[in-house]
Amino acid sequence: MLSASAQKLVRKLQQRKHRWQEQKFLAEGPKVVQDFIDEGLKPLFLWASEDFPGAELVDERELAKLSSFSTFNQVMGIFDFPHLSTAKDDRILVLDQINDPGNLGTLIRTADWFGFDQIICTKGTADVYNPKTVQSTMGSLARLAIHYSSQEEIWDNYNESHQLLRADMKGSPLEQIEFSSQKLILVMGSESHGPSDFWQDKTEAITIAKGSSSAIDSLNVAVAGGILMQALSPAAL
Q1: What is the full per-residue pLDDT of the chain (237 aa) written as tens digits?
Q2: Which of 23, 41, 71, 208 is the most buried (most CB within 10 A)?
Q3: DSSP string covering the chain, please?
């Protein structure tokens, strides 16, 4: 049985402000929890309704009541925020006001797959430690350096060292882009508005050529991000 203090902590960590105050996050599901453990994160608490290495066995109904998801996960853990080095910065993904936790998690996982070194989130972007984001990343939170920064700070820190590109429906097709640097930043904005006005005259607009005459007018931001990151990955350039 979870103690009253443990239940209180779980409920607190379902809110963004408490996650950042405590510097702790929840992870749910055997695969997600195991991925974090495999990456060297040690759970501060670990509960399961079935056999799971190192977990305290608890009643399934008790764990389900504390879950952030409608579909019950059999394993729940609490971890400290990972603090990873930002020394490597050849490929940086800037997520500008991506407010859907699922899309955010998918973009993080995809950046990990295609060899991006860092992710910088701007104000208005969902919390990377939101339980839905954590589940979508499938452990990539423990492998990628991720932090929050203002648009101005990103510009000041990287405009002289990196080629800055932004995903934009009105941009140039990828095959027309001349790459002037081995260091790249890709800015992805919200699905409904794209990158904010701040980036308009500071970045080169790129787009994905449409492959049909369909009336569809845009791609999901996570799908578009995956296509662009593949094209901009170290293996592709």
Answers
A1: 788 999 999 999 999 999 999 999 999 999 999 999 999 999 999 999 999 999 999 998 888 888 888 777 899 999 999 999 888 999 999 999 999 999 999 999 999 999 999 999 999 999 999 999 999 998 999 999 999 999 999 999 999 999 999 999 889 988 888 887 789 999 999 877 778 999 999 999 999 987 777 767 778 999 999 999 999 999 887
A2: 41
A3: ---HHHHHHHHHTTSHHHHHHHTEEEEESHHHHHHHHHTTPPPSEEEESS--TTPEE--HHHHHHH-SSSS--SEEEEEEPP-------SEEEEEES---HHHHHHHHHHHHHTT--EEEEPTTSPPTTSHHHHHHHTTGGGTSEEEE--HHHHHHHHTTTSEEEEEEEEEEEGGGPPP--S-EEEEEEBTTTBS-GGGTTTSEEEE----S--S-----HHHHHHHHHHHHSTTT-
